[in-house]
Design brief:
This protein is of the alpha/beta class. The protein is about 25% helix and about 25% strand. Strands 1-2-7-6-5-3-4 form a seven-stranded mixed sheet.
Length: about 210
């Protein structure tokens, strides 16, 4: 930890080109009840003046949208769990350079952001959405904040490990959708999102971080 990690107070006097704020398994809690909420709010505010572009992933995307725009998350009837098709809503966005009009991405979450709340919120732009998984990629302040509600970064077996973990705990969990061959967990998973995941991160670095 000492070698590879640093506390926020050790770097807050620096200027950063890019910042990634990752998710956390605290989505059932109200944001204000998360033990580090005040510190995270400090990071959000600091990033506005000190970071070219911040990429907020999964719970961090929900937290950022709540902090900046007071957009509330909502509980889902069942876990959004699997690999879903998404549509590019703004093909002119640099984030989608090289993308097909439809692409796949994994999700693993119990809460979500309503598409209507993004569409009716001044200052945000819905760049990609899924009929099943809802709002996916949202941009604000010309890309200074990017919010991704899913997990493009997941390696092939991550959903598999989460599924087996929950089964071992005796939790009621369905197999991830559109993930295993023939949708049967007896078969290995099928990788269908890596190409576009690589493009997304590359485009973010090239067009927002290194601009």
């Amino acid at each position: 930890l000492n070698k590879f990690y640093s506390d926020f107070h050790n770097i807050k006097d620096q200027k950063l080109d890019g910042l990634i704020i990752t998710g956390a398994p605290v989505e059932h809690l109200e944001f204000e009840n998360v033990s580090y909420w005040e510190e995270l709010q400090e990071v959000f505010e600091w990033s506005k003046a000190n970071v070219k572009s911040t990429l907020n992933i999964c719970w961090a995307a929900q937290a950022g949208l709540y902090h900046y725009f007071d957009i509330q998350k909502h509980e889902l009837g069942e876990k959004m769990f699997g690999v879903f098709e998404h549509k590019v809503l703004d093909p002119n966005s640099p984030l989608f350079e090289g993308f097909r009009p439809e692409f796949n991405a994994p999700h693993s979450r119990h809460t979500g952001i309503r598409t209507e709340d993004i569409k009716h919120c001044p200052g945000t732009e819905l760049l990609s959405a899924s009929e099943q998984a809802g709002a996916f990629i949202i941009s604000a302040n010309k890309g200074q904040q990017v919010f991704v509600t899913g997990h493009c970064e997941y390696p092939l077996y991550r959903l598999d490990s989460e599924y087996k973990r929950d089964l071992s705990k005796g939790l009621e969990i369905k197999a991830p959708t559109n993930y295993y061959k023939n949708n049967d967990p007896c078969f290995p998973p099928v990788e269908s999102w890596g190409h576009h995941a690589n493009l997304l991160f590359m485009n973010w670095l090239n067009h927002y971080v290194n601009k």
